[in-house]
Design a protein that fits this description.
The protein has 4 helices and 3 strands. Helix content is 40%, strand content 14%.
C-alpha cells in the first residue's frame, strides 16, 4: 500500500523576498531574488506530533526559538528558481521527518558453526605465536 502524500497548505507558509549576496552587479543590487521561506512547525496542523519533534531535531540549525523553520534560498539568479529551491528543501525536511521509526533490532546469538570457526582460528594464531618462541639459538 502506498504512503499517503503529505501536503502543507499555502496558508501555513510565509515567504519574503530578500536581496541575494555575491557577484552579479546591478541585478544583485536592485532585484530581490532571494527567498526566505518560513514555516511554523509548532502550530502546524498538517504534521503529526512525532513528525514535528523529528523536524525540530533534523533542522535545528534553521529553527528559531519560537519553533519557526526559516529556509533561505539565494543560489539562483531568479526569484522563481529560488522559491522553488526553498520549497523543495522544506519538502525534503518534512519527508525525512515523516519517515516511520526504524524497527528495533532483535538481538541474536552467534551460530554454533561461527563460534567453532572463531575458536579454531584463535587456537591457530596461538599455536603460531607459541612456535615463534620455541628454542634458543644460543647453545
Amino acid at each position: 500500500m502506498a504512503d499517503p502524500v503529505l501536503t502543507i497548505p499555502e496558508s501555513e507558509l510565509s515567504e519574503s523576498f530578500i536581496r541575494s549576496s555575491g557577484p552579479g552587479g546591478q541585478n544583485v543590487n536592485k532585484v530581490s531574488t532571494g527567498v526566505q521561506l518560513k514555516f511554523n512547525v509548532r502550530t502546524s496542523p498538517s504534521l503529526s506530533q512525532r513528525a514535528k519533534e523529528q523536524l525540530v531535531q533534523i533542522a535545528s540549525h534553521l529553527m528559531s526559538k519560537s519553533g519557526v523553520l526559516q529556509i533561505e534560498a539565494t543560489h539562483y539568479r531568479t526569484q522563481v528558481q529560488n522559491r522553488e529551491d526553498a520549497r523543495l528543501r522544506l519538502a525534503r525536511f518534512v519527508a525525512e521527518a515523516s519517515k516511520p521509526p526504524p524497527k528495533k533490532r532483535r538481538p541474536t546469538r552467534p551460530s554454533r558453526g561461527s563460534v567453532e570457526r572463531r575458536l579454531k582460528k584463535k587456537a591457530g594464531r596461538s599455536f603460531t605465536k607459541k612456535m615463534r618462541n620455541k628454542g634458543s639459538y644460543d647453545d
